């Protein structure tokens, strides 16, 4: 059971103060009866709630897949920079979603946003070994020693030793390379720092996969869509096996 005004507010129908006035104007019914108290307890999944003649269809959680653009921070609020939340429509912001993990300000690609705290915890916990796959452009060729170092666990500048990671060469050029990197952690600037430890620099970084969820290439940077039921099932399948 939840407060009526909380249910309606979560769906973007207004603030609690605004909804109190809407209910006072006899614009809301619950199971065919006029709602008289904005704080009345309702079961949003079973009760028939109608506001201004429109029946609401409640859902507790929202799951979004974004192609994060460069220059936007993975946060719910920032005093200086635009956030990924700022890119959402108001009706999606009403669910108060947050980014799962984070991508650096200048990193692009797949970002999951949700208000499902349990799923967030499972996805970002290193003990669950959820793969995060990146495409990267490096300022130098990659060799077998680099691949072995990633596999053995790179030690970062602060002394932290990363879990085993997979480094795959896509293209090796005379003075640069294109690679795919698979990690299971999310330390601050981790991929960039791993290459710095090998005296190389990341010039472009894009996340292309998170667990079983792949970047939707039809999304332009800054665009997003809801994760389908099939994609959500794939995303959570690894936990159901444990």
Automatic annotation (TrEMBL):
Signal sequence coordinates: none
Question: Per its record, what are the GO molecular function terms?
Answer: 16S rRNA pseudouridine(516) synthase activity
Q: List the SMART domains.
A: S4
As recorded in UniProt, its EC number(s) are: 5.4.99.-
Q: Which UniProt keywords apply?
A: Isomerase, RNA-binding
> What CDD domains does this protein map onto?
PseudoU_synth_RsuA (cd02553), S4 (cd00165)
Q: Where is the RNA-binding S4 domain?
A: 2-62
Which EC main class describes this enzyme? isomerase
Q: What is this protein called?
A: Pseudouridine synthase
Species, as recorded: Sarcina ventriculi
What does UniProt list as this organism's lineage?
Bacteria, Bacillati, Bacillota, Clostridia, Eubacteriales
């Amino acid at each position: 059971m939840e407060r009526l005004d909380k249910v309606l507010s979560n769906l973007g129908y207004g603030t609690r103060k605004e909804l109190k006035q809407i209910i006072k104007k006899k614009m809301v019914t619950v199971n065919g009866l006029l709602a008289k108290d904005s704080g009345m307890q309702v079961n949003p999944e079973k009760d028939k709630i109608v506001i201004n003649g429109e029946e609401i269809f409640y859902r507790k959680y929202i799951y979004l897949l974004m192609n994060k653009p460069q220059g936007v921070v993975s946060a719910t609020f920032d005093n200086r920079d635009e956030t990924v939340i700022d890119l959402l429509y108001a009706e999606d912001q009403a669910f108060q979603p947050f980014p799962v993990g984070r991508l650096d300000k200048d990193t692009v690609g797949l970002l999951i946003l949700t208000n499902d705290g349990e799923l967030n915890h499972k996805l970002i916990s290193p003990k669950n070994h959820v793969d995060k796959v990146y495409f990267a452009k490096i300022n130098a060729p990659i060799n077998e020693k680099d691949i072995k170092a990633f596999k053995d666990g790179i030690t970062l500048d602060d002394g932290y030793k990363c879990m085993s990671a997979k480094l795959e060469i896509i293209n090796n050029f005379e003075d640069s390379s294109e690679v795919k990197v698979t990690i299971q952690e999310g330390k601050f600037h981790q991929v960039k720092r791993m290459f710095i430890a090998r005296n190389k620099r990341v010039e472009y970084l894009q996340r292309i996969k998170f667990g079983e969820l792949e970047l939707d290439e039809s999304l332009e940077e800054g665009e997003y869509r809801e994760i389908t039921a099939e994609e959500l099932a794939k995303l959570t399948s690894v936990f159901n096996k444990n």
